[in-house]
Amino acid sequence: MSLSIEPLGPALGAIVHGVDLSEQLDNATFDGLYDAFNRYSVLLLPDQHISPEQHIAFSRRFGELEEHVLRDDLLDGQPEIYVLTNKTENGKRLGRPKAGWYWHTDLSYQANPSKASFMYALEVPTMGGDTMFASTAAAYDALSEPMRQMIGGLTAEHDFRHARETFAKHYGAEPISEEAFKARPPVVHPMTRTHPETGRKAIYVNEGFTSRIMELEREESIALLAFLYRHSTRPEFVYRHRWSAHDFVMWDNRVTMHCALGNYTEDRYMHRTTISGDVIE
Ligand code: SIN
After folding, report:
1. What are the percentages of helix, strand and coil residues in the chain, rounded to 5?
2. Spatial distance between the Cα atoms of 30 and 41, rounded to a whole number of angstroms
3. Given ligand 1 and candidates 82, 102, 119, 274, which is best to mutate, with the most ligand atoms within 8 Å of its CB?
4. 85-139 per-position pLDDT tens digit
5. Which protein residue's CA is at the shortest distance from atom 5 of ligand 1?
6. Ligand 1, atom 6: closest residue by C-alpha
7. Which residue segments constitute the domains of the chain, with CATH numbers given?
């Protein structure tokens, strides 16, 4: 296969043609795709026609797969696939509705947050339901040196419950069980991280899951986090993806955040795999 890669924005995002995920990628094509993934942080592979098994097999080439803690929203018989959808069948929901309608980085509330997530769009609304991605590496680069120094010495708590309390319960998202919260107790990460493959530094806090900066007073923590969220989502660091059915989008959770837009009423049905990551040094 021969890859063609075109950037989609100045900070992140590229569209890749010449890859058919229903076939086993040869090593050269895979390596080209892997390099592009590290370089652009978000890759769009349009017009893919793959089964859940093919989605899982391709994802495994990037690392071990997570089984999301929200077990009711995993695909029957294929727990590596987390289903994000507003669809129901015979009164039963088919996956998690209203998932990630706030800026966040997948699984940052775990001791080993996710490396990457790969989402395959099976059904999309005719309008709305876009996903925005922000480069936390470009945002880091744009900070002044004193600010980089300061946040480089700080750590922050990430709490699965925070998104629920701050956002999700206010727009009526499905409840999350106490069992799931207990399985994911709060964790503390450095506020910056270095991409293990590119060496690029990035801000590592997100509005959804970061609950406080450990070393600061409460008001200081609120103010600094508010600045970092506003700064990291400046338009020049963002790529907004308008989904078409059969888009396959891969994002690097080590240097991005994303936010799903809840402005749709028609059916939206997505499959996501989540690649495990390492403890942040
Ligand atoms: C997510 O993975 O957080 C949701 C993304 C989306 O549904 O667009």
Report:
1. 25, 30, 45
2. 15
3. 119
4. 999 999 999 999 999 999 999 999 999 999 999 999 999 999 999 999 999 999 9
5. 260
6. 260
7. 4-275 (3.60.130.10)
